[in-house]
Specification:
Elements (H helix, E strand, L loop, with lengths): L6 H11 L10 H6 L2 H13 L13 H24 L11
Length: 96
């Protein structure tokens, strides 16, 4: 940010980054950018970030291991497809 602002404004900008005493209002743009899919994925991320499945005592056999890997492969393909087809594509030349 130093190249866009003069020296006084740039120090003010960085001082406000670490100023926790002021309460800043939530910009309305953030509320419009979140949709139902965002909240569903946020909830899934919070739920699956904790190791609660260890307390379920699921028996480890060939079927459960195979099912786990099938679900993980499906989630990987789905997430990769979502990344490749969204408007903000990190793979800029993927479709060419």
């Amino acid at each position: 940010m130093f190249f866009r602002l003069d020296l006084k404004n740039s120090f003010s900008f960085y001082a406000n980054l670490f100023n926790f005493t002021r309460k800043a209002p939530v910009p309305l743009e953030i509320l419009f950018l979140t949709d139902t899919r965002f909240y569903i994925l946020l909830g899934c991320g919070i739920i699956f970030s904790f190791p609660w499945w260890r307390k379920l005592n699921i028996p480890v056999n060939k079927f459960t291991v195979t099912l786990k890997y099938i679900v993980l492969i499906i989630l990987f393909v789905w997430s990769f497809g979502t990344l490749a087809t969204d408007a903000y594509n990190p793979f800029i030349y993927f479709r060419f």
